[in-house]
Amino acid sequence: SFSNLPDAPVDEIFALNHAYVADTDARKVNLGIGVYRTEEDQPWPLSSVRLVEEEMYRQDDPARHEYLAIEGDLTFLDLARDLMFGFSSASSDSENKSKQRIASVQTVSGTGANHVGAAFLAQHFKPKHVWVSTPSWANHQTIWDLQGIERKSYPYFDASTCSFDFNGAITTLESEAAEGDVVLLHACAHNPTGVDPTKEQWKKIAEICQRKRLFPFFDSAYQGFASGSADEDAWAVRYFFNLTSPPMEMCVAQSFSKNFGLYGQRAGAFHLVTNGANPSEAPLVRKNLCHIIRGEYSMGPRYGSSIVKRILGDSALRAQWQDDLTIMSSRIKRMRQALYDELVRLKTPGSWEHVINQIGMFSYTGLTVKQVLELKSEFHIYLLKSGRASISGLTEKNVAYVAQAIDTVVRR
Ligand code: PMP
């Protein structure tokens, strides 16, 4: 019987979303789950995505529900890799050599990429520890705990300045991380804090990883969504990738949930980068990744990756996707500013600059658990206990209400 099972933790984000949906109060505001919402508080199929869906419907391709290969759609994978690492489609010889360092497989979105990467490394690389930032996306803990790899944490957020705790992070990695340990890094728009290392700070982190032979594991869930530029948001990954003497082994979990608005379609990829010394290594890695995938879920899903493939492979659609990214990232920036302006207007005690300085989908507001719970029970405003607010839940219509509610709970 299963009656003696240990209790399993409930996922805070999905539980909170459930409570929001069940709430019948007309004033309710969802600042919990990380999904993009329009000014009308609606989900938004990207205009580029809609065009492709209409085209797919018109074409009525009888093969559209066929199985993919175990590694996934090869054209999609090439385009996904090129987007991440900045390769052009007409590659030079040196670019082709760089591409050959990488083993790519299609995954069940970003979570699946994190999982397949963790499973592969646990089995074949056998790290003693994985270093995860404090705080981090909560699922990182679950994913690595399920692989039985001991988790260690490095400081990330300096609450007194609401900024990246660079000294804390590098001091810990420098003095405590050991050769062969995995270091989990958010490629951009760190979740939940919204603060990223500067380029100079990234260089130092890379130098430590390279010198101490740590294994960088990049989680890229917001490429193009954070700054509006896919190249800018991939800067850290590309910097690590392009280091020489010696080139580093590393990997990237790539999600298309946010930047293509394909949340439920589970489009993603995992890229393991070899050091390039042995050209037969990447195909061997891919074979082993395929072995894991076949035993777990056979292959990634087809619908979302078909859409991403079509957009990334066509210059006009790609330009339209770029416009879509700008629409989403600029609305979020506008809402940050609107919340900040309201809090300043209300003279809400404390400093709120971090709301406009943080990047990506979230603001790490600095609100306490007590204040978060009061916002929920009295004002029907939902955010995570850590004080993380998904800015996309704000609109011109509700931002004054939210600011007023924050002002009320902060003054108590
Ligand atoms: N990593 C981070 C840091 C995230 O914030 C997310 C999305 N919340 C993911 C990975 C993966 O999301 P998905 O599985 O929907 O691609």
From TrEMBL:
Keyword Mitochondrion: no
Any GO BP: aspartate biosynthetic process
Gene Ontology molecular-function annotations: L-aspartate:2-oxoglutarate aminotransferase activity; pyridoxal phosphate binding
Boundaries of every Aminotransferase class I/classII large domain copy: 27-406
Cofactor(s) it depends on: pyridoxal 5'-phosphate
Family matches, as InterPro entries: Aminotransferase_I/II_large, Asp_trans, NHTrfase_class1_PyrdxlP-BS, PyrdxlP-dep_Trfase, PyrdxlP-dep_Trfase_major, PyrdxlP-dep_Trfase_small
One Gene Ontology CC term in the entry: cytosol
Residues of the signal peptide: none
Pfam families listed in its UniProt record: Aminotran_1_2
Keywords, ordered alphabetically: Aminotransferase, Pyridoxal phosphate, Transferase
Enzyme Commission code: 2.6.1.1
UniProt-listed CDD domains: AAT_like
UniProt key word DNA damage: no
Catalyzed chemical reaction(s): L-aspartate + 2-oxoglutarate = oxaloacetate + L-glutamate
Subunit and partners: Homodimer.
Family: Belongs to the class-I pyridoxal-phosphate-dependent aminotransferase family.
UniProt xrefs under PANTHER family: ASPARTATE AMINOTRANSFERASE
NCBIfam families: PRK09257.1
Further remarks about this protein from its record: In eukaryotes there are cytoplasmic, mitochondrial and chloroplastic isozymes.
Protein name per the record: Aspartate aminotransferase
Species whose genome carries this gene: Talaromyces atroroseus
